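Example S7 (structure tokens).
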């Protein structure tokens, strides 16, 4: 049986944030966990399904692969089975609330991942390029070396949690440990904060980064810059920066996967008589032969004149859509010639086969 869409499983949109994913999964897990639904295979299957969806969508690289290729882009066995009791199921969800992994607490935290929207031209996306971006971020405070305390002073044990970093809260029949609201799980309290960072241990900065755009990137593709996100707190590792590609509209071409499309207007006399015309490509101009009596909307395909995608071995095609143009601002002589042509066409319906066929169908319709 085909797997359900992960976003549908969690009941969220494809643009859902990590917090929205977490809330959706927590709600489903509370409802369907086997510890609360013993001897209920349906609930167990729904729990496994929700857990698999959550684990894939909250891991950036897996989510990118899933958004592009669906279930084929991620490990089908990523979330098979589960073990342990009820608390084990929520370890990954409440890790930030509990202040670290069960069995031990760490005062350092990984910095947040950042997103940067980068707009590139169609030509840059097709050929690849390198550009520089300026990113606002949080970096470790140089004055206090990330401690948050004024130089010459030290943080003291938090009076609220006694240095444990966690406090226990009772919610119904659940007893939940969460990070101490005063020290935010660090177990330390800064009584004399650093004047540079106001005790945060991090300061806002602007940094310039060089980003290599691979040839063939498409709308929505993400480039991961490891360790270029926000600095971690208390010497924790930095997060990552995800550069999201957006392609500017092109005046001539539109892109569909690796194929390019363009419209080419020609006069109706050129369409009727045929000939050779030049059409634009990303590599210059190419010539195509127009057969006589070509109709508007005819599509000409130029093989391998499209874009070679990041994961493609061969480039796509260029599809040229011919549009027969009606002349405007006619001179008296042009009008005279067109009237003469119309008179000749009316005497012989074979010159307008589509119009004749259409009129025959109309007559049959009203004759019924």
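Recovered sequence:
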């Amino acid at each position: 049986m085909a797997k359900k869409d992960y976003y549908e499983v969690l009941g969220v949109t494809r643009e859902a944030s990590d917090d929205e994913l977490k809330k959706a999964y927590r709600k489903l897990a509370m409802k369907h966990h086997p510890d609360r639904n013993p001897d209920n295979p349906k609930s167990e299957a729904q729990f496994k399904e929700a857990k698999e969806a959550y684990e894939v969508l909250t891991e950036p690289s897996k989510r990118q692969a899933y958004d592009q290729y669906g279930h084929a882009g991620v490990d089908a066995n990523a979330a098979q089975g589960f073990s342990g009791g009820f608390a084990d199921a929520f370890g990954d969800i409440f890790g930030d609330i509990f202040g670290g992994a069960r069995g031990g607490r760490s005062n350092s935290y990984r910095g947040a991942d950042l997103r940067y929207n980068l707009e590139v031209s169609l030509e840059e996306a097709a050929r690849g390029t390198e550009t520089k971006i300026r990113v606002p971020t949080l970096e470790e405070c140089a004055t206090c070396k990330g401690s948050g305390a004024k130089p010459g002073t030290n943080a003291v044990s938090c009076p609220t949690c006694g240095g444990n970093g966690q406090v226990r809260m009772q919610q119904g029949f659940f007893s939940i440990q969460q990070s101490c609201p005063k020290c935010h799980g660090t177990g330390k309290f800064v009584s004399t904060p650093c004047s540079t960072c106001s005790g945060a241990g991090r300061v806002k900065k602007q940094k310039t980064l060089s980003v290599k755009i691979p040839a063939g990137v498409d709308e929505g593709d993400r480039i991961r810059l490891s360790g270029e996100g926000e600095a971690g707190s208390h010497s924790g590792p930095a997060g990552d920066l995800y550069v999201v590609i957006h392609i500017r509209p092109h005046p001539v071409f539109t892109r569909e996967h690796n194929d390019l499309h363009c419209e080419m207007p020609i006069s109706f006399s050129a369409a009727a008589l045929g000939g050779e015309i030049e059409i634009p490509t990303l590599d210059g101009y190419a010539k195509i032969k127009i057969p006589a009596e070509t109709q508007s909307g005819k599509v000409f395909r130029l093989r391998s004149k499209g874009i070679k995608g990041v994961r493609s071995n061969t480039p796509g095609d260029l599809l040229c859509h011919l549009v027969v143009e009606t002349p405007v601002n006619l001179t008296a002589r042009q009008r005279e010639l067109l009237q003469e042509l119309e008179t000749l066409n009316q005497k012989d319906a074979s010159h307008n086969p589509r119009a004749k066929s259409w009129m025959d169908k109309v007559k049959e319709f009203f004759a019924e």
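Notes on this example. The longest strand covers residues 129-140.
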